[in-house]
Amino acid sequence: MSQDTIRPSEGLKNVRYEIRGTLARRAHELQRQGYEIISLNIGNPGLFGFRTPETMRLAMIENLPDAEGYCHQKGIFPAREAVVMQQQSRGVTGVTAEDVFIGNGVSELIDLTLRALLNEGDEVLVPSPDYPLWTAAVNLNRGRAVHYPCRPENGFLPDPEEVRSLITPRTRALVVINPNNPTGTVLPRSVLEQLARIAEENQLVVFSDEIYDQMLYDGAEFVPMATLVRDTLCATMSGLSKVYRACGYRVGWVSFAGKMSGAADYLSALELLSSLRLCSNVPAQWAVQTALGGYQSVRELITPGGRLYESRAAILNAVASSEFLRLVPPQGAMYAFIGVDTKKLPDFDDRRFALDLLEQKHVLVAPGVSFNVPYRTHFRVTTLPDAPTLATVFGRIDELLQQYALRR
After folding, report:
1. Which residues make Cβ contacts (< 8 Å) with residue 374, sequence separation at least 6?
2. Which residue pairs, CB below 8 angstroms and at least 24 apart, start in 391-394?
3. Which of 61, 270, 285, 325 has the fewest beta carbons under 10 Å from its own?
4. What pLDDT shows up at residue 12?
5. Total domains, the chain
6. What is the per-residue pLDDT for 9?
7. Where residue 155 sits, what CATH number does that domain have?
8. Per residue in 21-58, pLDDT tens?
9. Which residues contact 13 (CB under 8 A, 6 or more apart)?
């Protein structure tokens, strides 16, 4: 490397976010050349015609005169109080507006909460597969992500005893993503209770990413982690992006519950970091109270006849009809983490498949390795397109897999 080359930070050496990486850049190049690309790599509702509820837009407009200056570093009081009311309605006790921080999406809060906690070499237990920002943020903040397996053969559920076995004197926190991205797994109460006890026994901070909390299918039960954690600190994260189809508003929140004694210095550090970035997006914060306290229109989308329900059904039917594909049915969220039968395609590689699918069939998916798994047999699609589009997509996927099979 020449002396005039600008070197990137060594802190980025172990940081990956392939969902918007090389494949996405290549898709953009193909679009600029005139090709129509079906992009299934990101859960972006607005890209597929979903609209933010009108009441939320009106709440922002009506409060614009009060949204032109900085607000408190933790967020505006009506938004924080709305989060408190939601948590209380779910059985979470002891939360006040002072225990809630509003951020520029959950993404920013993942970074800030970890930065306020971790020292060099501290370990955080992260599920595998995970939403890759969790692993990246641990690495960026000088920590070490230790992945606890959620294996396909176990329905993507973790083994609590295996989680326990990974704890060392350097372990500081446990991450739970429920419903899970990318698998759509909804963790049962029994598993969550065991994870809560493990965290309490080892005084681990629990970070519970619940951004898809109301996207549930076929009677799946969502259990808020903060209702189970009592004797250690529990941070619950959610936001407007998914359930309320408002990704561009960039509003998320974290609320703290459980054992608050002993957490004052940590929460002060988090407030310091929040102050350094001044505040989060003020106009969109005015939509939070309306969103959480108003009609929950997502229910129309996740029940029979609703678009998300029918799109999920289209994926289940397509996989069932394929001789190559396998799927643990997603119980929540807006994704399907699809496996390929390696008995029929023993040389399958998720990265090569994703690139071939993009170049030859003009469909963009996220290879499974993007989600910090040790195997190369899966890929993720979002369930946001309508059912006819998904039928087209899976027709192209089967065509490509059939070509692979004929080459054997």
Report:
1. 128
2. 391/314, 391/318, 392/38, 393/38, 393/40, 393/363, 394/314, 394/315, 394/318, 394/319, 394/322
3. 61
4. 77
5. 2
6. 82
7. 3.40.640.10
8. 788 899 999 999 999 999 998 889 999 999 999 999 99
9. none
Residues 129 and 144 in one domain: yes
**In terms of domains, do 277 and 312 share one?**
no
Distances from the Cα of 115 to the Cαs of 9, 199, 270, 342, 389, in angstroms? 17, 20, 8, 40, 41
The pLDDT assigned to 44 comes to 92
Assigned domain for 5 exists: no
Last residue of a domain, one of 244, 278, 293: 293
Total number of residues shown for the chain: 408
CATH code assigned at 382: 3.90.1150.10
Are residues 247 and 308 located together in one domain of the fold? no
**Cis amide prior to 129 (ω within 30 degrees):** yes
What residues contact residue 154 under an 8 Å CB cut-off, 6+ apart?
A: none
Give a yes or no: residue 3 inside a domain.
no
In terms of domains, do 266 and 398 share one?
no
Question: What parts of the chain have a pLDDT lower than 70?
Answer: 1-3, 19, 408
Give the pLDDT of residue 239. Answer: 97
The boundaries of the domain holding residue 243 are 55-293
* C-alpha–C-alpha distance, residues 253 and 86, integer Å: 12
- Residues 232, 321, single domain; the answer is no
- Whether residue 352 lies inside any domain: the answer is yes
Final residue belonging to a domain, choices 293, 309, 335: 293
- The answer to whether the bond into 374 is cis (omega within 30° of 0) is no
Determine the pLDDT at residue 2. Answer: 57
Token readout for 67 is 């949204």
DSSP string, 51-102: ---HHHHHHHHHTGGGSSS---TT--HHHHHHHHHHHHHTT--S--GGGEEE
Is the CB of residue 225 less than 8 Å from the CB of residue 257?
A: no
Residue 107 covered by a domain: yes
Q: Are residues 66 and 179 in the same domain?
A: yes
Give the DSSP H or E segment for 363: strand 363-364
Q: pLDDT tens across 191-200, in order? A: 999 999 999 9
Cα 370 from Cα 15, distance rounded (Å): 11
Question: What integer pLDDT is reported at residue 1 of this predicted model?
Answer: 53
Give the integer Cα–Cα distance in Å for 83 and 255.
8
